[in-house]
């Protein structure tokens, strides 16, 4: 399933920067800083998190699997590093940084010319234990989709007080 996996996930991974840009570029601050409530992430924070994942998670962990297997565990991933790393940055800058990081990651992924045996190799996650390169790559694409949904949901729910009884017909408001 090696080439099938890459054929499946590459179109998703390639489109994420454009999807984020189409949804978020040029929006006023009240939209990009909106949250679903206390302790929830705004679109600005989500994009910062996605940049951090590009830099510290997907390709670094894939390289670790290919070079060391399970003999060297993955470094722990700080899911909240974006609060420091992206502090003071605006959405336009974060969108550019994400696009650049993604393009570099996909360029490196393609250069690896992964085969089935590569995707079956295991790495050692600090919490999950053994995971395969295949699982890591599938999770990369699913992670993108999860955060795109999160952003869409956050933006839609910002309108909840305005739509009144119509909310009952919109699953995103539940």
TrEMBL record:
Coiled coil feature spans: none
Pfam families: DinB_2
Top-level taxon in the UniProt lineage: Bacteria
DinB-like domain boundaries: 13-151
The protein's name: DinB superfamily protein
Organism the protein comes from: Terriglobus roseus
